[in-house]
Amino acid sequence: MQTLRNLYKKGEPITMLTAYDFPSAHVAEAAGMDMILVGDSLAMVTLGMQDTSEVTLDDMLLHCRSVARAAQSAFTVSDLPMGSYEVSPEQALQSAIRIIKEGRVQGIKLEGGEEMAPAIKRITTAGIPVVGHIGLTPQRQNALGGFRVQGKSTAGALKLLKDALAVQEAGAFMIVIEAVPAEIAKIVTEKLSVPTIGIGAGNGCSGQVLVQVDMAGNFPPGRFLPKFVKQYANVWDEALRAIQQYREEVKSRAYPAEQHTYPMPEEELVEFRKAVDEMPEKK
Ligand code: KIV
């Protein structure tokens, strides 16, 4: 937390990336990410679900434990999935405690503005760091009419600022701002005394977050990518090429070659062959 606060004070952007298991967290850690988010986007990108509403707290816990084992210095945060915190502040606290105790990550993130302030207050009062999430909140996509840019009107932008201030006041130490015009996210950031992490919210936030499979290009061609995603690699193509070559080499018996096998002393082999030859014929 102190490291993150120092980055914020210095004006150095905070880097956050999603990870869902040991290898994806391991590579994020090795690349020096300041924060690793076990996002509920794992519902779609790791579990193949239709949207985030299907993923459960128990699903999240399994993935949190896997991520936590790989994260040494990155600060780890997990989403509270839909249905695990909206009923009451008590429910939110109970879910947050499970994420910390059983999931072994260091903080939680939850979606929502002013209306979630009592839940945020309850969780932070128990000593659990909370990241807020405002703007486009994918768990509410049905109510929002899909994945739409938020805060585009004066009223929408004012609501966003009100939400940000309420979430900060309730004790969130950081706020993710998703799919909001860059100018609005910048003004909201300037009005706050906690860092903002942008995703589709321009360069005026205190840091950035992306979904790892999106930025690494670990998906088949033709998949929709939001405008704000920059694809830094094509992991899918590289994995596909490798797996196709492996398949071909197994079929042609080019793999395994001699260097992939374990040697045996010649005299042991001669003796083994002799013993086999002396065995009675199979009936
Ligand atoms: O679930 C997720 O991956 C997220 C990020 C996109 C912020 O909430």
Automatic annotation (TrEMBL):
Name the pathway.
Cofactor biosynthesis; (R)-pantothenate biosynthesis; (R)-pantoate from 3-methyl-2-oxobutanoate: step 1/2
The Enzyme Commission number assigned here is 2.1.2.11
GO cellular component, alphabetical, reads: mitochondrion
GO biological process: what's one of them? pantothenate biosynthetic process
Pfam family for this entry, one? Pantoate_transf
What is this protein for, i.e. what is its function? Catalyzes the reversible reaction in which hydroxymethyl group from 5,10-methylenetetrahydrofolate is transferred onto alpha-ketoisovalerate to form ketopantoate.
What is the name listed in the Swiss-Prot or TrEMBL entry for this protein? 3-methyl-2-oxobutanoate hydroxymethyltransferase
